TrEMBL record:
GO CC annotation terms, alphabetical: plasma membrane
Pfam families hit by this protein: BacA
Organism for this UniProt entry: Chengkuizengella marina
Gene Ontology MF terms: undecaprenyl-diphosphatase activity
Organism placement in taxonomy: Bacteria, Bacillati, Bacillota, Bacilli, Bacillales
The protein's name in its UniProt record: Undecaprenyl-diphosphatase
Subcellular location(s) per record: Cell membrane
One GO biological process term: cell wall organization
Membrane topology type: Multi-pass membrane protein
Taxonomy, superkingdom: Bacteria
UniProt-listed Enzyme Commission number(s): 3.6.1.27
PANTHER family registered for this protein in UniProt: UNDECAPRENYL-DIPHOSPHATASE
Described purpose of this protein according to its UniProt entry: Catalyzes the dephosphorylation of undecaprenyl diphosphate (UPP). Confers resistance to bacitracin.
InterPro entries linked: UppP (IPR003824)
Keyword entries, A-Z: Antibiotic resistance, Cell membrane, Cell shape, Cell wall biogenesis/degradation, Hydrolase, Membrane, Peptidoglycan synthesis, Transmembrane, Transmembrane helix
Amino acid sequence: MDIWELVKYMFLGILQGFTEPIPVSSSGHVLLARHWFGIEVEGLSFEILVNFASLLAVLLIYRSDLIHIANYSLKFIQTKDIKYKKDFMFVVYLLIATIPAAILGITLEDYISELFNENDVRMIGVALIITGIALWFIRNLRGKKNDQNITLLDAVIVGLAQAIALIPGISRSGATIVAALARGWKQDTAMRFSFFLYIPISVGVMVFGITDMINEPNIETRIIPYTLAFLGALIASYFSLKWFMGIMQRGNLIIFTVYCLIVGTVVLLF
């Protein structure tokens, strides 16, 4: 394993990790990087590991909220006390919102992978432009709905938005936050729901991909580069999510609009 192999794995890990939380599409950026720099990464283990690294970053940052929601949901199941119902329903709506992406991911995974690949990045450019336009439309929205005001229809719409984000170039966090803000959610509620929604999807990817990882030939030869990519993705995701949380508080989503429009246009032109 030469130095270039280590560098490319770490570079892709950091790139995926940094772009996962922010609304610019991590999958689109990784495919663009592989196309423009001629980087080949064998097997699915790499994608599974870096996504798991981003999941750990989300769990670390939101650990207090997650523990709170889990405890209160269990208390509602045990006591049926109305004061715990808000947190229980939040979990229920998360599960409902997970269904569209889970179904489409299982049924259309091969088709999407064939349509959007590193050999034809024009569609990724189009998708990035669509992401930028969507972010522009909601850039000034300040909703009033918090956790207890979320409805079944809200959960379904946000879940459908996440399903659309299976297309590389359509940001998962961007699509779900856009949908939530369009439904009148507060920004902090939209962001929490979006990243909590990432948890079951990421766990599902791990569960369905574990067999591929175990059976991947010569995986022992890639332990070092995979470890570097994992650590790079974990650190990058952590600080990127922290940065994005500050941007959401200040309402500066316009910077991602401009970025997506510029990169999408460059992809189409060059």
